[in-house]
Amino acid sequence: MDGPGDSDLIRTEGEFRGCGPLIPPLSESTRPLRQQIFERVRAAGLMPRVQVARELSVSPATVTTLTSELIESGLLVEVAAPRETESGRGRPAVALGVRADAHLVAGIKLSDREHTAVLVDFAGNLIADEAIARHPNAVGVDDLAEATLTLLNRVCAKAGLTRSQLTAVGLAVPGYVDSATGIVHWSSVLQVRQVPLARVVSARLGLPVHIDNDANLVTLAELWFGAGRALADFAVVTIEHGLGMGFVINHRIYRGGRGIGMELGHTKVQLDGALCRCGQRGCLEAYVADYALVREATTALNWTGRESQSVTVILESLFDHAKAGNQAARSIFRRAGRYLALGLANVSNLFDPELIILSGERMRYDYLYAGETLAEMKTLMLDTGRPAPRVEIHAWGDLLWAHGAAALALSEVTEGLMGAARDPFAGP
Ligand SMILES: [Zn+2]
């Protein structure tokens, strides 16, 4: 027979099931306070303790305790700050800054043309850069690891450093890359699929290696060093060998639930459409990427017999023809531009970003983003009466992408030094 206590218990469980998001302890939104302090100081360059306390809404005493620990650990330094007013008297104002030589990292961009590397210090300052021509075809994973080693040794030599003085390396890889597991599912620079590239390159370099998709890392570069520093939500659409996108949501790169989201190039813009190099049909990339333009040029301009020429040479020739008034060449760029407008309108309708940055080597082909292309994007967007998002063209070179890879390494080193995994209350 049930007693009154049992039925009370059952009813109580039903009433306390809980609701609302179940967020793991010490997840990103609740990062350890000392990490938040460090990242805020790094972003500002210099920041007085009182401002840190104000911006994080914590007591000055807490900030003093935690910054003392960060100074003792050799991660922050005290710097005499410039006076805000000429009439300031009393003790000199002191600000906090990142100790630049605390850690050095490298960022490397692997691409279809050349591999590029930068060395940066812990405050994000550039120390040296270097580039090497890449093997003309996709290579095996050991060859790619060897090329990475050669490039890293060269950039270290240029800076008068040895590899062992680095703390970590960030690697930007074109293709489908799972940053969390370090696995490359497919890449145009590799002959093989499903490669644990981070692990293989790490073993070859003798250093921790963090990898991500190159579009994500050029986006990280804009977030850390570029036009996106103060923006919560923005998109970077890259036109290189293929078409990629990186997306920042609430000041963080969004990678999808399983690590390889935001593949704008393979969103479908035509049922049963043009064949894409991914094997499917009707992908946006199959209308906009360089191989799509080359395919059209071969047919429309009757350019048979050019199979031995590189994609870059054929594209340059197509661009020259368009500039010289060749209507067939112009219509190829215009059509690609219209498909790009369709893709950008879809991005805008889905995510409503503040800014869309178009980036990459192919942005030299200005037909792709001519005034009529951007006007077409607006006609394909929801008509809400508001202005369309800003579109900026950033034709930076590979160095910016390598900077993004360095930012990945910096953020991983920071996470390892003071992130949730290192929190004394987080358990083993
Ligand atoms: Zn595709």
Describe what you observe in this structure.
- This protein is of the alpha/beta class.
- It has 3 domains: 26-80 and 92-98, Arc Repressor Mutant, subunit A, CATH 1.10.10; 102-219 and 400-422, 2-Layer Sandwich (Nucleotidyltransferase, domain 5); 263-353 and 361-395, Nucleotidyltransferase, domain 5, CATH 3.30.420.40.
- 39% of the residues lie in helices and 18% in strands.
- The strands form 4 sheets. The chain has a 5-stranded mixed sheet. A 5-stranded mixed sheet has the order 13-12-11-14-15, covered by helices on one side.
- Strand 5 and strand 6 (126-133) form a beta hairpin.
- Helix 5 crosses helix 6 and helix 11 (327-351) runs parallel beside helix 12 (371-380).
- Residues 423-428 have low confidence and may be disordered.
- It binds zinc ion.
- Residues 266, 276, 278, 280, 283, 285 line the site of zinc ion.
TL;DR?
With 428 residues, the chain is α/β, with parallel strands linked by helices. Helices cover 39% and strands 18% of the residues.
Q: Layout of helices and strands, plus pairs?
A:
Elements: H1 4-15, H2 33-44, E1 47-48, H3 49-56, H4 60-72, E2 76-80, E3 94-98, E4 104-109, E5 114-121, E6 126-133, H5 141-158, E7 168-173, E8 176-178, E9 183-186, H6 197-205, E10 209-213, H7 214-225, E11 234-239, E12 243-249, E13 252-253, H8 285-288, H9 290-300, H10 311-323, H11 327-351, E14 355-359, H12 371-380, E15 390-394, H13 398-418
Parallel strand pairs: 4-7, 7-10, 11-14, 14-15
Antiparallel strand pairs: 1-3, 2-3, 4-5, 5-6, 8-9, 11-12, 12-13
Helix pairs in contact: 2-4, 3-4, 5-6, 7-13, 9-10, 9-11, 10-11, 11-12
Bound molecules: zinc ion (ZN).
Zinc ion (ZN) is lined by residues 266, 276, 278, 280, 283, 285.
